[in-house]
Amino acid sequence: MNIVFTENETDCVAFDDADGKFYLGADGIILYLGPGEIEPWYVNASLDWFRQSILAYENYGDEVVTTETEEEQLKVVAKFREAVLAAIENQNNQKKSFWASIVQQAEEGQM
After folding, report:
1. What pLDDT digit, counting tens, does each position of 25-55 carry?
2. DSSP H or E run through 13
3. In what order do the strands lie in the sheet containing 21-24?
4. Average pLDDT over residues 60-89
């Protein structure tokens, strides 16, 4: 999944290659709405945390492709998990967490 920031950060702040949109919610939180979804996913507490999470995600993608063993992959996944944990720590009791889902997919070897 590629995430691209928009020039106009008033509503939709970024989009992904699956036509999902990241947008500013109440109190400046970032939410994600995928195609055909009605209920948004909680992403981050602020745009700054979102940018940090994207950087961690990009670093994960760059590093995981260079691994040769499952052990190396697990270390890269652990590093990614740690990098986004702080960013999703304050989830405002949201039911659906975008980054928790992405980390779970990485842990299960789906990405």
Report:
1. 888 889 999 999 999 998 988 888 899 899 9
2. strand 12-16
3. 3-5, 12-16, 21-24, 30-33, 41-44
4. 87
Q: What is the DSSP letter of 40?
A: P
| Inter-residue contact 31 to 15 (CB < 8 Å) | no
- pLDDT of 67 reads 93
The predicted model scores a pTM of 0.81
Q: Per-residue DSSP letters for 54-94?
A: HHHHHHHHHHHTT--SHHHHHHHHHHHHHHHHHHHS--TT-
The amino acid at residue 51 is R
Answer for the pair 39, 55: CB distance below 8 angstroms, yes or no: no
72: domain range? 3-107
Measured distance CA(32)–CA(54) in Å, rounded: 13
Total number of domains in the chain: 1
Phi, psi of 24 (to 5 degrees): -75, 130
Residue bearing tokens 């994600």? 32
Q: Which two tokens stand for residue 93?
A: 């009791």
